[in-house]
Amino acid sequence: MDIVASETPIGQTGESAPRADSCLRPRPLLLRWGKHLRGTLDRLIAASSLVPNAPVLDMRAFAWTAALRADWEAIRDEAIAAIATRPGAPSLAAISPDHRAIAPLGKWRSLFLWGYGYRVDENLARCPHTSRLIEQVPGLNSAMFSILEAGTHIPAHRGVTKGLITCHLGLVVPRDGDVRMRIGNRTVRWAEGETLVFDDTYDHEVWNDSAHTRIVLLIQFRRPLRNPGRWIADALLGVLRRSAFVQEARANLCRWHRGEMPADA
């Protein structure tokens, strides 16, 4: 069965440290010491999870994914139109400095609709049908059209917290090569109109070994949890939402929409 691959939106980071020129303000303690704390926090959250902790989850446990599959062509059409219309979709590395270690400039672009609970009204207005669908997602955290150019490789990385789960909807999938993702010891491939729900705290990497662009709708939502895991996840997400890790990306996105960043960023 073909399923959708993964990469990380705002609020997640690779294993490599961010470049020095990206650290405009100190990162929160939970990020700066993430390698030491992440395992402990993830184990506490996992113990409280109301859904399995496997790398790939059963999409039937998330009923709202059916609406995405049913309307995937309308979502695809809005994505293509929005990406092609100025200001278009910037490089993720230009918007989110913490992604520069894993996101090649000009190769991985993102058109944000939501980011860490913050609406991107300019883009939502360009995609009204998609907007209505994603606003029905319980615990919506982030949503974006993720655009991977031909020949791009996103190196191995992990999401920052098990308190979030990711869903992909395949929109444009090249058929002239091998467009795939490794998550743990499993390899998966995208399919247009199909969804995958997965836990990206597992080590994963992505390839677009084709001559064309790949587009998916990427949605992050809060993992269903009981306490104390819910308290831990809520506290961590609150810290991240207010941190430079997210706020710098918000500021850069505003600059992009005001035309203050290079058109090829």
Uncertain spans:
1-28
Order of helices and strands: EHHEHHHEEHHEEEEEEEEHH
Strand content: 25-35%
Assign an overall shape: globular
Mean model confidence by pLDDT = 86
Q: How are the SSEs ordered, and which strands pair?
A:
Elements (H helix, E strand, L loop, with lengths): L12 E2 L14 H4 L1 H14 L8 E2 L7 H6 L1 H13 L7 H4 L12 E8 L2 E2 L1 H6 L1 H7 L5 E9 L4 E6 L5 E9 L5 E6 L2 E4 L5 E4 L5 E6 L4 E9 L6 H14 L1 H14 L8
Antiparallel strand pairs: 1-6, 2-10, 3-4, 3-5, 5-12, 6-11, 7-10, 7-12, 8-9, 8-11
Helix pairs in contact: 2-8
Would you kindly provide a written description of the structure presented here, covering whatever features stand out?
Helix content is 31%, strand content 25%. The longest helix is centred in the N-terminal third of the chain and has 14 residues, at 34-47. The chain has helices at residues 29-32, 34-47, 65-70, 72-84, 92-95, 121-126, 128-134, 229-242, 244-257, and strands at residues 13-14, 56-57, 108-115, 118-119, 140-148, 153-158, 164-172, 178-183, 186-189, 195-198, 204-209, 214-222. With 265 residues, it is of the alpha+beta class. Helix 2 runs antiparallel to helix 8 (229-242). The radius of gyration is 17 Å and the shape is globular. Residues 1-28 have low confidence and may be disordered. It has 9 helices and 12 strands. The strands form 2 sheets. Strands 2-10-7-12-5-3-4 form a 7-stranded antiparallel β-sheet. A 5-stranded antiparallel β-sheet has the order 1-6-11-8-9, with no helix packed on it. 43% of the residues are buried.
